[in-house]
Amino acid sequence: MLGPLRVLDGERDLTPGPAKHRALLAALLLRPARPVAVERLIDEVWDGRPPASAEPVLRVYVSALRKVVEGIRTVPGGYLLDVDPGRVDAHRFEHLVAEARRAGEAGRRAEAAEGLREALTLWRGPALADVESDTLRRAHAVRLEELRLTAVEERVELDLTLGRGARVVGELRALVAAHPLRERAWGQLIAALDQAGRRSEALGAYREARRLLVEELGLEPGEDLRAAHERVLTGSPAPRTVPNETPPDIADFTGREHILEWIRGSVPKAGGAPVHLVLHGPAGVGKSAVAVHAATALDLPDGRLYASLGTRTPEAVLEDLLRSVGCPEAAIPADLDGRVRLYRSTVGGRRLLVVLDDAADEAQVRPLLPTGPGCVTLVTSRSPLPGLEAARALELDVLDRDESVAMLAGVAGEHRVRAEPEAAARVAELCGGLPLALRIAGSRLARRPGWTLAHLAGRLGDERGRLDELSAGDLAVRGSLALGYRALSERQRLLLRRLGALSAPDVAPWVASALLGGPAEETLDALAGAGLLQARGLDPAGQERYGWHDLTRLYAAERLAEEEGPPAGVLAAVAPEILERARRARTLLLPAEPGSGLTLARTAEQITAPETALFRESARWLAAERGFLVATVADARRAGLDEVAWRLAFYLTPFFELGAHREDWRSTVEEGLRAVRRAGHRHGEALLLRSLADLHRVEGRLADAAETLRLALTLAETGEVARTRYRLGLVHLAQDRLPEAQACFVACLAAFSAAGDRRGRADALRALGGLRREPDLLSRSLEAYRELGDPRGEAAVSLDLAGLLLDARRLREARGRAEHALGLARRLGDRLPEATALVVLAGIALAEGGPDVAKQSARQALETFREHGDRGGAARATLALAEAALGLDEIDEAFDGLTRAMGEFDALGDGRGRAMAEKLAAEVRRRRGV
């Protein structure tokens, strides 16, 4: 399928001829050995426009395919093609790319480059080239093509690190010709030409790249491309690697303050002799946790190295450390002495923190010690390593009673520990002060809210039922999980440990597939069957979700660190899939956003049912993945994947705004800002500041919103200045600073029109029309949204027009506009816009003399606003409900509603809402004779 669809049996070509047969076969091949529902197949084969007889015709197509393709089976509700994914080129490609990336993460760069090269040979043209189904191409071909392009760039990057620049120049020239605006490819071409000694051509390539970017996008080259140019000009090597390899810290780390203070106090000043610290003690006492927690707080300028030693040889560890500090693979000597000399000379001028975890003996550690002034080495071992010269050792004992109880409270919940202090102390005593044992006990309590601490203490006190790990030290504590882990297949162990890179509470199968580089449903079910994962049912998008206990996640993270390395590598491998899915979902939520190029030129009525289903599916998918995506932003930022973190935070903004998920909005944009500022990406920072200002505005924090937007304006690139100023106009409008708001909107309208920004023009027309209360401007905005194929924008303007028509007492037209908006919101599954439409319809019903109908609409709207935590919407709905109550002569109810509404308007700083409520309150007082 990586090219025209072909079915080959040896030398025989069995590819079906009819287009519908090919589309059906492709739909099944894309999900090998997995059932596919009849409804989905019909949608994909007929591209969303099936005939009335689609189902019986589909059966005929299946029958015809069975004559040439073995393994098509009928299953409840659909069909399944029983084929090994390794025999399907698309799946084999993804598997080979994943394998190559794992080799690269392990430092085997030559092997990784060859693996990617093998994967890319599977391509014979555009994915699904002759499959006539836009639905299939949107869902699968775009992702495969992007993965192909990323794999090419990754393979070229590996070749460059291996000194093969001269070999890849021709390939890179073809790549930039096909994708002239891809800055990474241009940067690689410049580096390859420079590496090949063709300096003048490298400078010419930069000039050509800059010309294209300026002419096509109006943008100067990004920081990485400029840096590649600067290196050619100055003849300097690539920037020195600053590693940050320590695993993520434990969120509920408890105690050990005297040990942490000892470590902090041992750090030498710059230029001082290097310091080597050994944390030793029995297994399970928390040596690794202390080392990682301490390392996280130490800020040495040249970074942090991390190595899990175990039974590894010093030669193998040195190879990894040398790669981490930027040594090309070809430059690493084969013998131990050569590697030690190169390591010491490379790090001699750097001030590093090196964490050497789980050391066996002095001979294993000695070659790995950095010799640079001011360096710190943290070694963990069961032994004090007395023969390690110039090392200071400190023994970690079990936690004392107070520390144990504090740790138990951190895991199980402080309120439960405070409620049963004596039982908590007994549990801590039975755990023997071992941190891992305490974590197991706390996790059991956390996942069994009906248990008391006394009940758990009773279970642990019974020797026949006491967990083996609590009576036999760390090895026994880990026994049950380790035994279960060892019993898994290699593929199951691989997935479990890679899930340890994620902090999200649960995942869908697509995440697991990305982690494995292939289908993962059977592997997930096997892990659930083994009790290591739990199937938690279907989410709003119809996906089965799998969660795990926190102890299992921690165990998986430990296995990942020991067997593959820090979680950043796993996160980097799955990041393209996560970002692409989030980007596609954002595009459906916000069609024709500036720069997207989407101009569908159709009215909402012309948008087909399957397309509307895609809009709804996007919102449902985002709702289902909300917790995972929010956690991933933080995971990526903590792992140093700054671009992943800030881009994902930006992609999620419209979803959070649409669903009023304000805490998630705040946390992701704050994480994104930390990441983008660390990366020094001004344009990204401007986008996220704009998002933060939107959050401030909807929360009623108008002064903060205005200040944030002014800061964003200092960073915004040319194309974003008008959009940022447009938002400043919205803030001025909310502040009742109407002249300033109008000036912003007029200027933005001119800027958007001049730039050909059709969405920006639609937004500005709507804002200006609402401010001036001019139906003509709103009608032009409505037409612009329709031309963009944006039903959400169309619905919003329809409500604005309905409000103007209501004020003009043109009630029939007002109702038509409002009901049209309501229908669009319901088709799209947009609950908050639906509630807004119900508030407008309540006002129309009141004007028509139907206060009972108005009350029903307002009550429905209020329930939705409260459900989503939208205080401003709830205040408007409460005001409409009070007005309806007044129309029914329910004076006391109207008075109570107005009191609540005015309180909310005051809290939100909504002066216009407060004024409307005051006007209605005067009528209530008149009727009450007050």
TrEMBL record:
Gene Ontology biological-process entries: phosphorelay signal transduction system; regulation of DNA-templated transcription
InterPro entries for the chain: AfsR-DnrI-RedD_regulator (IPR051677), Apaf_helical (IPR042197), BTAD (IPR005158), OmpR/PhoB-type_DNA-bd (IPR001867), P-loop_NTPase (IPR027417), Sig_transdc_resp-reg_C-effctor (IPR016032), TPR-like_helical_dom_sf (IPR011990), TPR_rpt (IPR019734)
Gene Ontology molecular function: ADP binding; DNA binding
Pfam families xrefs: BTAD (PF03704), Trans_reg_C (PF00486)
PROSITE patterns according to UniProt: OMPR_PHOB (PS51755)
Gene3D superfamilies according to UniProt: Helical domain of apoptotic protease-activating factors (1.10.8.430), Tetratricopeptide repeat domain (1.25.40.10), Winged helix-like DNA-binding domain superfamily/Winged helix DNA-binding domain (1.10.10.10)
Signal peptide: none
Keywords carried by this UniProt record: DNA-binding, Transcription, Transcription regulation
DNA-binding interval(s): 1-83
CDD domains, sorted: BTAD (cd15831)
Domain OmpR/PhoB-type: 1-83
Similarity section: Belongs to the AfsR/DnrI/RedD regulatory family.
Name by which UniProt lists this protein: DNA-binding SARP family transcriptional activator
Record organism: Streptosporangium saharense
